[in-house]
Write a structure and sequence with these properties.
Fructose-1,6-Bisphosphatase, Chain A, domain 1, D-Maltodextrin-Binding Protein, domain 2, 2 domains, 8-stranded mixed β-sheet, 10 helices, globular, metal ion binding, FBPase_class-1, FBPase_C_dom
């Protein structure tokens, strides 16, 4: 007789956990208008996070599919991770709510030319993610690349997890239907952002500072991170600190299905991803490294250059085939172009969980302590042997 699966219900009530109050409340009415305006009434997607209810059990080993016909969807995998003690129920709900946001954004992007969603109108994508995270009832602070300051979820809906995200990576690719993605990182529960409605302005300003400090954490503190790739397939890749797993959206059922289990990046790879249009702006050491990659190797062939202008696409390819990606500093941008909190730290977490390395040329990306929420940093990320080779050139 088949083992009973814990019942799944839809939770619209607030979390019983410690809450974080209205500091920068989300404009829910505006959010719903933006989202609903992009969908017809018959195709509206309601974004209520799944509440995963089940009896508490002792940590158990995660069961792998017994044969190639047995599929594991994201919900089942999250339940397995919870039963194994890798995550708690609240983190499972946050990850589930992010997957719902990915589905909505994927739908919007597929119809972008029809609904006039361009790279310059990415506010809709930000509101989609904010709405899904808020309705999960498990997030207290949300920080986005598109927002000036972190958003504190109002008390009725708030939880304790801190989520940072870039709703659309490679937004310039939207208009020409090329690869784009979303990136997110999740930090553990934190109560530094509490504020009372009756507080005076100075107290609220202090709470604002506490909120920003709560978000400014090194990548080593991440409890989960991932990305969603929007291309010929929609791929949701996540890590909760125990390997990297990728789920592909099955359009027939609307479910994310496990397709890449415990991904391990190749130790070396002969693909490099740099924007070589900036070659003349780089320092001599980096130029020498790039010159080395262009020369024929022992097999008589040089490295292959690949650059699509989307960090998610570059990292996804690298996880599967190996190689190195770089966004270095240059004469016009002393800290590179990518943001530490929303892009570099989550991606470095993923790559290191897969056995790769990530550095700014001096230290590990995950060890950098952010001083500002929109701080930028150079980054070199990829196969361990390729990063080690680069470091010798930069030394």
């Amino acid at each position: 007789m088949a083992q009973a699966i814990p019942r799944i219900t839809w939770n619209t009530k607030s979390s019983s956990s410690s809450s974080i109050s209205h500091l920068f409340p989300i404009n829910i009415k505006r959010s719903q208008q933006l989202i609903n305006g992009s969908f017809s009434p018959n195709s509206r997607i309601l974004c209520e996070a799944a509440s995963l209810e089940g009896a508490k059990t002792a940590p158990a080993q995660i069961k792998k599919p017994e044969n190639r016909y047995e599929m594991v969807n994201l919900t089942t995998w999250l339940l397995q991770q919870e039963q194994a003690g890798n995550i708690d129920a609240e983190l499972a709900i946050v990850l589930s709510s992010i997957s719902l946001a990915c589905k909505q954004i994927a739908s919007l992007l597929q119809r972008s030319s029809i609904v006039n969603l361009t790279g310059a109108q990415g506010t809709v994508n930000t509101q989609v993610v904010l709405h899904c995270l808020r309705s999960s009832g498990r997030t207290g602070i949300i920080a986005s690349e598109e927002e000036d300051v972190p958003v504190a979820v109002e008390e009725t809906y708030s939880g304790n997890y801190i989520v940072v995200f870039d709703p659309i990576d490679g937004s310039a690719n939207i208009d020409i239907a090329l690869t784009t993605g979303s990136i997110f990182g999740i930090y553990g529960p934190n109560q530094q952002c509490l504020v009372d409605y009756d507080d005076d302005d100075s107290t609220i300003d202090q709470a604002r500072e506490k909120c920003i400090v709560s978000v400014c954490q090194p990548g080593n503190n991440l409890v989960a991170a991932g990305y969603c790739l929007y291309s010929s397939s929609v791929v949701y890749t996540i890590s909760v600190g125990d390997g990297v797993y990728a789920f592909t959206l099955d359009p027939a059922y609307g479910e994310f299905v496990l397709t890449h289990e415990d991904i391990k990046i190749p130790k070396a790879g002969r693909i490099y991803s740099f924007n070589e249009g900036n070659y003349d702006l780089w320092n001599e050491k980096l130029q020498n490294y790039i010159d080395h990659l262009r020369k024929p190797g022992p097999n008589g062939k040089p490295y292959s250059g690949r650059y699509i202008g989307c960090l998610v696409g570059e990292i996804h390819r690298m996880l599967l085939y190996g190689g190195i990606y770089g966004n270095p500093k240059n004469k016009n941008s002393k800290n590179g172009n990518l943001r530490l909190l929303y892009e570099c730290a989550p991606m470095s977490y993923i790559v290191e969980q897969a056995g790769g390395k990530a550095t700014d040329g001096i230290q590990r990306i995950l060890e950098i302590m952010p001083e500002q929420i929109h701080q930028r940093t150079p980054i070199f990320i990829g196969s361990p042997e390729e990063i080690e080779k680069l470091e010798k050139y930069l030394a």
